Amino acid sequence: MSSRIAAVDNYLTTRPGVTGYVMRDRVTGGIYRNANADTSFWTASTIKLAIAEDLLNRARVGAIQLGPDDRALMESMLATSNDNAADILWNKFAGFDRMSFNNAFRANGMTGLVPFPPTTSLEQVKMFPDWGFQQCAPADLDRLMDNVLTRMHPDDRAYLLDRMRHVDTNQHWGVWGAGAAMNPGLKNGWSDEQGGWVVNSVGFAGPGERYTLAIMTEQGDQGGYADGAETTTHVAQLLFQGR
């Protein structure tokens, strides 16, 4: 693995923007991270994985009820990264103080997650906190993914992993670069922010979900969506293909 990590780090020196990543080997316990693993980036839609985990956890203990419409929204939010579905679920289940999700996110490993208020006139119609205006580090997404794999009820975990393995083609990049033989699953996020594009991916690959990868990029004025998608995909290829 050390040669693969070195290849990733060398590759990232050639890529636009800033990239942070954390890769975890759940068999050996090894955790590999670069210098930007604790750097904060906009989460974009990677936070939808955290939303889905929390909804399933709450439903499991009877704190909420997820009806067929709610589950259809959750599947759309995961499969195609449907923002409207995420909005509906957030507003329905965020609680009277709108902190139910954020409190759970911290408990589920995202201890560095910070919600921000909407920043433009169009977005002011949204209340604080909102899923679309939050920042975290790759290390937070790494802990989230590990939490999904180690602490969820087995039935809920199996459902969520299956959904992550069957995302729409608009998310066939990032951790998807591990290749079909590694049976990857993921939740990606991409957004054109005021500081430029952020393009992120979090997921798993390998037998028994042996490996997890959280990778976040901020392109700034150096690149765009395609550059970020290429970076995240090639990192997964370097780490996992041919294993």
From TrEMBL:
Entries under SUPFAM superfamilies matching the protein: beta-lactamase/transpeptidase-like
GO terms of biological process kind: beta-lactam antibiotic catabolic process; response to antibiotic
GO molecular function: beta-lactamase activity
Signal sequence, start to end: none
Entry superkingdom: Bacteria
Official protein name in the record: Tat pathway signal sequence
Species per Swiss-Prot/TrEMBL record: Nocardia terrae
